[in-house]
């Protein structure tokens, strides 16, 4: 269970996350949707203690991320701008992560196998394709077999096969009673994966509920998305407060 | 929520030693570490030959020549390859965004910094002995104990490598790059010190490189000399300052 309340983050004068609140329930896949610059990655960084909020709280299983006793066994995360040193071999990247949280070494082989990187494990990461890098990131998130998955645009760079694999993995994960939160700006993809959605635009939550509720009255999730976010584009938004008619 | 979910058995809380092991793996699996160590070892050993046998003389002032052992800067030069090991260990965190992965794995910034520092200390100590020893033995074998003693003795040399390595490490954690600390540490003795020593030898001899030379008993001239214990204290102060500042800043940074 993820509980976010009144979360606010300012970069200079820019309000990147503005009074954001939502809960993510276990047993379901929750999509975190919004246009570029809406504040998705910032919210996820705040949730994982990689950025300091100006206000509000973000809890995972009732605790701040920084207070977790077993961070990687509790939460698996894939984040923008969090990855391996390019000169390191893929397997070594996973090896140190596993050691840091006392995850058995055999688990490194398991997740490499799971994401289909066994053959490339001994290669330096700088030789990886975009999709291979993404698979390595997902492998790192899965290392601790965590209770909660937080993935920032996990299908970015993946081929159709990879996308389907991620979808099946996340559905299975949620079906086993665990919590899955994934950000995306791909509506069609999210519609096929998520049960619930949180829509953010200009730093504010504009909709939160089951996919059916959100798409109700619209042709598709995509048209609902445009209707919800059309006047609150994150890019060029003014402090995230730009309501309709303000400019 | 239970801390240990299915599949991966919970083996108790995470210990500092787990984090130190992970940091050791990071350093060990970075190709730069091995390249740098090989370079340092080669440079140290090669410089020991002329130092021990006095074959090579360096042109000194007034047309006189001097034995290479009198030029501490030359003998200490390999340390500036050596310090690239901790610099890469620190700067590597900021390549590819590894630091975010590190902080996800070890969200307690104090533990993260402490674990990394302990790993760097361990690697520096072992590596310093390994790279310094062959050169030291060469000097001893070819030039006798006098020459070996003249360059400070093995433990002093290892201490010098360790302390300058810590200065470089703290510096790199502070500025989050590899290039700046290496450039500054090399430019200081090569360019700044020759200019500054004419103006103010009192200040110049307190620079890390010059203080280290004093500590090793081979200052570059009497006006730059400090007593050996004083030289040691000055270098220790530099190391504590840089590492302390890096620690303080790491606590306040988020990732
Ligand atoms: N470190 C930072 N410094 C300054 N501004 C930032 C920083 N990080 C994010 N921002 C700003 O905060 C806003 C939200 O950015 P964020 O990366 O969270 O968006 P996003 O929803 O993840 O977008 P995308 O879909 O493009 O990944 C943007 O306007 C961005 O410019
Ligand atoms: Mg983003």
UniProtKB/TrEMBL annotation, chain A:
Presence of the UniProt keyword Hydrolase in the record: no
InterPro entries: AAA+_ATPase, ABC_transporter-like_ATP-bd, P-loop_NTPase
Alphabetized UniProt keyword annotations: ATP-binding, Nucleotide-binding, Transport
Domain named ABC transporter: residues: 2-227
SMART domains: AAA
Pfam families, per the entry: ABC_tran (PF00005)
Molecular function, one GO term: ATP binding
Taxonomy, superkingdom: Bacteria
Keyword Membrane: no
Family: Belongs to the ABC transporter superfamily.
Protein name (record): ABC transporter domain-containing protein
Source organism of the structure: Planobispora siamensis
From TrEMBL, chain B:
Name used for this protein in its record: ABC-2 family transporter protein
Top-level taxonomic group: Bacteria
Residue spans crossing the bilayer: 31-51, 71-91, 112-133, 153-171, 178-196, 230-251
Organism whose genome encodes this protein: Planobispora siamensis
Alphabetized UniProt keyword annotations: Membrane, Transmembrane, Transmembrane helix
Residue stretches in coiled coil: none
């Amino acid at each position: 269970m993820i509980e976010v309340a009144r979360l606010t983050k300012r970069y200079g004068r820019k309000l990147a996350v503005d009074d954001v609140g939502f809960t993510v329930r276990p047993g379901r896949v929750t999509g975190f949707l919004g246009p570029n610059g809406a504040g998705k990655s910032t919210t996820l960084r705040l949730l994982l203690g990689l950025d300091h909020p100006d206000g509000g709280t973000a809890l995972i299983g009732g605790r701040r991320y920084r207070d977790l006793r077993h961070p990687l066994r509790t939460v698996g995360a894939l984040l923008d701008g969090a990855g391996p040193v390019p000169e390191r071999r893929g397997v070594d990247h996973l090896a140190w992560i596993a050691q840091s949280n006392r995850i058995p070494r055999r688990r490194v082989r398991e997740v490499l196998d799971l994401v289909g990187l066994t053959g490339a494990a001994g290669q330096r990461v700088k030789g990886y394709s975009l999709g291979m890098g993404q698979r390595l990131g997902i492998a790192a998130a899965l290392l601790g077999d965590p209770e909660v998955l937080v993935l920032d645009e996990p299908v970015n760079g993946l081929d159709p096969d990879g996308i389907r694999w991620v979808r099946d993995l996340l559905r299975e994960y949620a079906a086993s009673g665990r919590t899955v939160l994934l950000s995306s700006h791909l509506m069609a993809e999210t519609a096929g994966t998520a049960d619930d959605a949180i829509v953010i635009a200009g730093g504010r939550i504009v909709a939160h509920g089951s996919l059916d509720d959100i798409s109700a009255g619209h042709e598709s999730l995509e048209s609902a998305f445009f209707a919800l976010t059309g006047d609150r584009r994150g890019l060029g938004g003014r402090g995230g407060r730009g309501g309709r008619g303000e400019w | 929520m239970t801390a240990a979910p299915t599949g991966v058995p919970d083996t108790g809380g995470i210990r500092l030693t787990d984090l130190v092991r992970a940091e050791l793996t990071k350093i060990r699996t970075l190709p730069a570490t091995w390249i740098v160590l090989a370079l340092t070892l080669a440079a140290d050993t090669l410089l020991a030959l002329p130092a021990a046998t006095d074959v090579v003389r360096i042109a000194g002032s007034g047309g006189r020549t001097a034995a290479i052992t009198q030029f501490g800067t030359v003998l200490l030069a390999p340390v500036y390859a050596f310090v690239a090991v901790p610099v890469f260990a620190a700067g590597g965190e900021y390549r590819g965004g590894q630091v975010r992965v590190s902080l996800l794995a070890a969200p307690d910034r104090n533990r993260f910094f402490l674990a990394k520092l302990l790993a760097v200390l361990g690697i520096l100590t072992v590596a310093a002995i390994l790279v310094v020893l062959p050169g030291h033995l060469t000097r001893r074998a070819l030039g006798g104990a006098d020459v070996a003693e003249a360059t400070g003795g093995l433990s002093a040399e290892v201490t010098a490598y360790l302390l300058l390595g810590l200065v470089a490490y703290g510096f790199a954690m502070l500025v989050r790059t590899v290039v700046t600390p290496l450039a500054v540490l090399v430019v200081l003795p090569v360019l700044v010190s020759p200019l500054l020593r004419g103006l103010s030898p009192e200040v110049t001899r307190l620079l890390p490189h010059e203080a280290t030379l004093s500590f090793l008993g081979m200052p570059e001239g009497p006006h730059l000399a400090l007593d050996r214990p004083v030289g040691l204290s000055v270098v220790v102060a530099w190391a504590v300052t840089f590492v302390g500042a890096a620690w303080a800043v790491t606590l306040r940074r988020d990732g």
